Amino acid sequence: MFVSTDERGRKQAYESEATLDFLKSHDVNPVLEKDRETQLKTSYITFLQAHDKEKPQDIDSMLARVNAENDYVMLKSSALKEKQFTSDQLKGMENELSHQFQARKQTQEKDRYQEDYKQEVLEVMQQPSEETQYKQLFKQNLLAQLGISDEKDSSKEAKKEAETEKAPVEKQLKQETPQEKEQRLAKMKEFEQKHSFDKVYKLKKEVLQELKELNLTDSQREKLTKLEKALDTEKKDHDKQKKEEKSQNGFTKFFARNSGANSSRKQKETQEMER
Question: Is the distance from CB of 40 to CB of 76 less than 8 angstroms?
Fold first, then answer.
């Protein structure tokens, strides 16, 4: 027996093998009964994805989740009715797929955060140094006093130097709108709030190590080194604060235990004196 699903999600059964040609001629994809497990898994994963993408007050995302859920419920009911699977088997399949989905999602979030952090570091590296900015501003000031246009009297060497300074990372840097940059930074902040400082530090160090392998100019490498030193300093301060808090908590517990013991001893001595 062959089973197919039409555009509206309705199932159709065909008993003859000759129906294969019929199905292909009508652009209907036949599905063997033994593939029901694959159908169920695919449908459930689709539901998990739609549920994850659903957003409040977003009608399209809500409809996508409802449709995906209905499709899976229909397949599940059919499988149970035909006694192809038990409820426990389907529940086990759902739990396994849910765990896999969450694990894959966490990996994707980690990779996305590293890419966003890399984008932020590249932006810093591409920015001209303070000295270069000051020289440019001072030059504009002098040109203005002389009544000379900056465009007409631009030094070819200065242009060449500026292009050389940003060339190695130019291709690595994405062109973002201010809104896209704001969204990226917001996502990074959200990730940092959800994960420990140590995990975020580890991801950042991996990105910095990756950037060290680029063909950097001396100026860019210097900026990268400063960023890494600042990150390492932040890590040392965090570890120091963590150690102090742990020590403080230990002292508090010790003091509480001793206070309790002293109180009990004094109470016992008082009772003995009263006797």
Answer: yes
Global model pTM greater than 0.70: no
Phi-psi region of 27 (alpha: psi -120 to 50; beta: other; left: phi over 0): left
CA 7 to chain centre: 35
Of 41, 12, 43, nearest to 26 by C-alpha is 12
Q: What is the pLDDT along the chain (275 residues), one digit of tens a residue?
A: 445 555 555 555 444 444 445 445 545 444 455 588 899 999 999 999 999 999 888 899 999 999 999 999 999 999 899 888 899 999 999 999 999 999 999 999 999 999 999 999 998 888 776 666 666 666 666 667 666 665 544 455 555 555 555 555 666 677 788 898 898 889 899 899 988 999 999 999 999 999 988 888 888 888 899 999 999 999 999 999 988 888 877 656 655 666 665 666 666 665 665 55
Q: Which residues contact 138 (CB under 8 A, 6 or more apart)?
A: none
- Spell out a b/e string for 50-60, using b for 16 or more CB atoms within 10 Å of the CB, else e: beeebeeeeee
The span from the CA of 34 to the CA of 85, in Å, is: 12
- Closest C-alpha among 29, 10, 15 to residue 2: 15
Question: Under a CB-based contact definition with an 8 Å cutoff, are residues 40 and 26 in contact?
Answer: no
CA–CA dist 138, 141 (Å, integer): 5
| Contact residues for 24 (Cβ-Cβ < 8 A; gap 6+) | none
